UniProtKB/TrEMBL annotation:
Start and end residues of each Aminoacyl-transfer RNA synthetases class-II family profile domain: 249-510
Protein name in the entry: phenylalanine--tRNA ligase
Keywords noted in UniProt: Aminoacyl-tRNA synthetase, ATP-binding, Cytoplasm, Ligase, Magnesium, Metal-binding, Nucleotide-binding, Protein biosynthesis
Upper lineage: Eukaryota, Metazoa, Ecdysozoa, Arthropoda, Crustacea
Main location: cytoplasm
Record-level GO cellular component terms: cytosol; phenylalanine-tRNA ligase complex
Key word Transit peptide present: no
E.C. code: 6.1.1.20
Length: 514
């Protein structure tokens, strides 16, 4: 059913109109046996869509039945209406040519480029005008006949008078008018309507019982009552429901994979961290550029928080200032004030540091931990960077772990998320040594892409926490956005996250499977 064919205004009395359509339509089916929905709507002045609406309702109650067919509909184009008002472009062009002739340029000045474009060639074809070559660079357009007849205008007028009936128009003429885009044809679905098995002139609603009741079942009256039949083809009402954002879908997949690999999840519900856990505990010196306000968001209120583990903080201070266990430290004066500054955590490694500290207390048992949550960086935003994103991070703590263990764990994890080919490149992190960037081969783009970062936590970080000698912690991290963008085909991170996200995207995206 085409919905844009009618331009009747919708009014508050729509319901009344429906009743009027219903009464009229039933009457007409009774009088004529077969009724054409289009002709009915035109002759009675009802919008065709509304007629179809009423028809559907009456049909569902078996009052009526119908068959559909496609009907070609002809009409005049906007240009044709202009021709009927002002004459065809060729007639207009002809009339603008004076007896003494005129140059093309001047003619264009009189009637305009549009009219010339559509009219001039027809003037030549009809032998109304000719071109007179006065000299090498002067051409004059002159009249060839003294009077003309504007046939196209007459044809259009006649066609319009016939109600745009193609049968009332010579087929060659119609073809020509169509070619000149003066008449257009389109098709529309129309319904041939007949009476149905329960045909009745009275209003259909009134003869229906609203709903089946217990009483009707008990007294058996349901058998003789008139119910609206079930419509098994009706689309159910859309159910309002919540849905997971793609990042959360990928997160739950990653979570399942890591749990399957024997990792436990760390609590990440703390966006605000002290600089101590985000940086100092990780042996990141206080003058490190990442601790700058250009890279990190500092809180104004409360700007700082007290250190919770003073003995440990003291050991961290000593390690930064002087080193220990074979390290010479960073050799500067460590400031407690600096470490107390509150920030939005810049990486989930702050979460890992808290967990590692806890793990180092008491008797050590080997553990595997992971986290997936939001982090914040004071970055210039572009198509691949936002000031907040999500990190996936994991670590394994055990005696005598080697780089081989780290490579093995990472390779396994990436294999499980669909990146079976990984390469490693030496890198630098203040808290890991050695450090490796992880590259994954993308089958889609046939390139190696950076997919993560990793390393073995430094003894300068682990010893102050209280880990016994020989315990090593291998760790790796990656963003959640990168694999999500690849998985869902996002080119711009702002289409995935932030205030410009199209909520339909969130509703419609499929589940993620790795
Ligand atoms: N914290 C690092 C980052 O922000 C990732 C990482 C985690 C690196 C663990 C090494 C070990 O990129």
């Amino acid at each position: 059913i085409e919905s844009n064919q009618n331009h009747f205004p919708r009014t508050a009395s729509a319901l009344m109109d429906k009743n009027a359509i219903e009464t009229r339509l039933l009457q007409e089916v009774k009088d004529h046996e077969e009724v054409d929905s289009w002709k009915f709507s035109q002759s009675r002045g009802f919008p065709h869509d509304d007629v179809i609406g009423v028809l559907n309702a009456l049909q569902s109650r078996d009052f009526l039945q119908s068959k559909t067919s496609r009907l070609a509909v002809w009409s005049l184009s906007k240009q044709a209406e202009d021709v009927i008002l002002k004459g065809s472009p060729e007639a207009e062009t002809y009339c603008a040519v004076p007896t003494e002739g005129i140059s093309l340029q001047d003619l264009q000045g009189v009637v305009g480029a549009e009219t010339i474009k559509h009219g001039l060639s027809h003037c030549y074809k009809n032998n109304w005008l000719l071109v007179d070559k006065v000299s090498e660079d002067l051409k004059m357009i002159r009249q060839k006949v003294t009077s003309i007849e504007d046939l196209v205008k007459q044809q259009l007028e006649q066609f319009k008078e016939s109600g745009c009936n193609p049968e009332k128009c010579d087929s060659a003429i119609l073809k020509n008018l169509k070619r000149r885009k003066l008449v257009v044809s389109s098709s529309r679905t129309v319904f041939s309507i007949k009476s149905g098995p329960k045909f009745d002139l009275s209003r259909s609603d009134e003869s229906l019982d609203a709903a089946l009741t217990l009483g009707m079942i008990q007294d058996g009256s349901w058998e003789t009552r008139n119910f609206k039949p079930y419509n098994f083809n009706a689309r159910g009402q859309k159910i309002p429901y919540g849905c997971l954002h793609p990042l959360l879908k990928v997160r739950s997949e990653f979570r399942a994979i890591l749990l399957e690999m024997g990792f436990e999840e760390m609590p990440t519900n703390q966006y605000v961290e002290s600089s101590f856990w985000n940086f100092d505990s990780l042996f990141q010196p206080q003058q490190h550029p990442a601790r700058d306000a250009h890279d990190t968001f500092f809180l104004k209120k409360p700007a700082s928080s007290p250190l919770s583990h003073l003995d440990y903080a003291k050991r961290v201070k000593t390690m930064h200032e002087q080193g220990g266990d074979g390290s010479i430290g960073w050799r500067y004066n460590w400031s407690e004030d600096e470490s107390r500054k509150n920030i939005l955590r810049t990486h989930t490694t702050a979460v890992s540091a808290r967990m590692l500290y806890k793990l180092a207390q008491g008797k050590f048992t080997p553990k595997k931990y992971f986290s997936i949550d939001r982090v914040f960086r004071n970055e210039t935003m572009d198509s691949t960077h936002l000031a907040e994103f999500h990190q996936v991070e994991g670590f394994v703590a055990d005696y005598d772990l080697s780089l081989g263990d780290l490579i093995g764990i990472i390779a396994k994890f990436f294999e499980k998320i669909g990146i079976p080919n990984v390469k490693f490149k030496p890198a630098y992190n203040p808290y890991t040594e050695p450090s490796m960037e992880v590259f994954g081969y993308s089958e889609a783009t046939k390139t190696w892409m950076e997919v993560g970062n990793s390393g073995i936590f430094r003894p300068e970080m682990l010893r102050p926490m209280g880990f016994p000698e020989g315990v090593r912690v291998v760790a790796w991290g990656l963003s959640l956005e990168r694999p999500t963008m690849i998985k869902y085909g996002f080119k711009n991170i702002r289409d995935l996250f932030g205030h410009k996200v199209d909520l339909r995207m969130v509703r419609q995206n499929p589940i993620a499977r790795f």
